């Protein structure tokens, strides 16, 4: 079980927190940063089902941008190794 802070004025929800107090702390920071400490009408802490990072990662599928980024990172690693041994 997890908790999230939701602000209907901004249309946002916080990341999940293990404790209600964590989500409430997020709400306090959100109010101060975005609403000058005012309480948005309808804001709430909602209890949500916890999705573990492992099962979230299992559902992840790479996009085209991810493949390009991985290829660029791989080329950079190869170039770094080649550069280290040839200079
Ligand atoms: Zn807000």
Textual characterization of the structure:
This protein has helices at residues 20-35, 53-58, 64-86, and strands spanning 2-7, 12-13, 44-48. With 87 residues, the chain is α+β, with helices and mostly antiparallel strands. The longest helix is centred in the last third of the chain and has 23 residues, at 64-86. The chain is elongated and about 60 Å long. The chain binds zinc ion. Zinc ion (ZN) binds at residues 7, 9-10, 30, 34-35, 40. The chain crosses the membrane at residues 67-85. Keywords: Membrane, Transmembrane, Transmembrane helix.
Mind sketching the topology for me?
Blueprint: E1 2-7, E2 12-13, H1 20-35, E3 44-48, H2 53-58, H3 64-86
Antiparallel strand pairs: 1-2, 1-3
Residues 7, 9-10, 30, 34-35, 40 line the site of zinc ion.
SSE arrangement, N to C: EEHEHH
Measured between the Cα atoms of the first and last residue, the distance is: 55 Å
Strand order, largest beta sheet? 2-1-3
Bound ligands, each once: zinc ion
Give the strand tally: 3
| Biggest sheet features | 3 strands, antiparallel
Count of DSSP-assigned helices: 3
Question: Structural class, from helix and strand content?
Answer: alpha+beta
State the share of residues found in helices, binned by percent.
40-55%
- Overall domain count: 2
Q: What value does the average pLDDT take?
A: 90
Strand content: 5-15%
Keywords: Membrane, Transmembrane, Transmembrane helix
């Amino acid at each position: 079980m997890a908790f999230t802070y939701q602000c209907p004025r901004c249309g946002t929800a916080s990341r999940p927190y293990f404790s209600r107090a964590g989500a409430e702390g997020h709400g306090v920071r959100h109010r101060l940063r975005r609403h000058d400490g005012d309480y948005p009408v309808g804001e709430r802490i909602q209890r949500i089902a916890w999705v573990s990072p492992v099962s979230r990662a299992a559902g992840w599928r790479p996009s085209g941008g991810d493949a390009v980024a991985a290829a660029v990172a791989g080329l950079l690693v190869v170039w770094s190794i080649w550069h280290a041994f040839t200079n």
